[in-house]
Amino acid sequence: MATPLPVTITAGAEGPWRITGITAPVGASLLPAARLVVEDGARLARDGAWRLRGITSNLRYTAEAERAALAGVQQGLGRAGATRAALIPIRKSEAWWDMAQDARRDIIEEQSRHIAIGLEYLPAVARRLIHCRDLGEPFDFLTWFEFAPEDEARFDALLGRLRATVEWRYVTREVEVRLARD
Ligand code: HEM
């Protein structure tokens, strides 16, 4: 993990990603928009329907063996064939944040197998986790995934498995923005 990197995501008329759908599995949705751009750095001057910002960070819950397993298979963003993406902003409940780190880890992995399940979908799915709770943003996390069109059905299956876990009982808002680029 390199130095924390601010990231700004703007939906509006511009951007390399075409928005193909916005749904809200839990809580309020986001406004419709045509396109979306992800920019590294804190960007302010760009018109848009909505803008979300956050920052990449260090690992919190991943054990060393899990980190090594992920590092051994995961691929980076921006692969030529990965022309589909999903932006999934997530907010978790106060009950979640009231727990200590070890209790949250127990739910994420020992009870929900988030990392073990996720590993099954690598390297097809490339991802980036962006934190925003400490910035006073409407979401706690912006999760970003890129994959090839032929892996979209598997990505849908991954979403179904994660949403059925104990961890997801603490999700109070989740929006799913699906994207495509040429
Ligand atoms: C593609 C396979 C996936 C893998 C390998 C994966 C792996 C991980 C890992 C290792 C972490 C823990 C990071 C840390 O130690 O702080 C994490 C956190 C997280 N992941 Fe995933 N994940 C995957 C898919 C997903 C999907 C599809 C979603 C959303 C629907 C998601 C949402 C999150 C969120 C919100 C967190 C932060 C949890 C928290 O800190 O409370 N992940 N993921």
Description:
This protein is an alpha+beta fold and 182 residues long. It has a single domain, classed as Alpha-Beta Plaits (2-Layer Sandwich), CATH 3.30.70.3420. The protein has helices at residues 64-73, 94-98, 101-111, 114-119, 152-163, and strands spanning 6-12, 17-26, 35-40, 50-55, 84-92, 126-131, 141-147, 171-180. The longest helix has 12 residues, at 152-163. The radius of gyration is 16 Å and the shape is globular. The mean pLDDT is 96. The structure holds protoporphyrin IX containing FE.
Structure at a glance:
With 182 residues, this protein is an alpha+beta fold.
Structural class by sheet pairing and helices: alpha+beta
Strand content: 25-35%
Bin the helical content: 10-25%
Order the strands across the largest sheet as they lie in space.
4-1-3-2-8-5-7-6
Tell me the radius of gyration: 16 Å
CATH topology term: Alpha-Beta Plaits
Q: List the ligand species.
A: protoporphyrin IX containing FE
The biggest beta sheet, please?
8 strands, antiparallel
* Tally of distinct domains: 1
3D shape: globular
* Spans of at least 5 consecutive residues with low confidence: none
**Which second-level CATH architecture applies?**
2-Layer Sandwich
Overall average pLDDT? 96
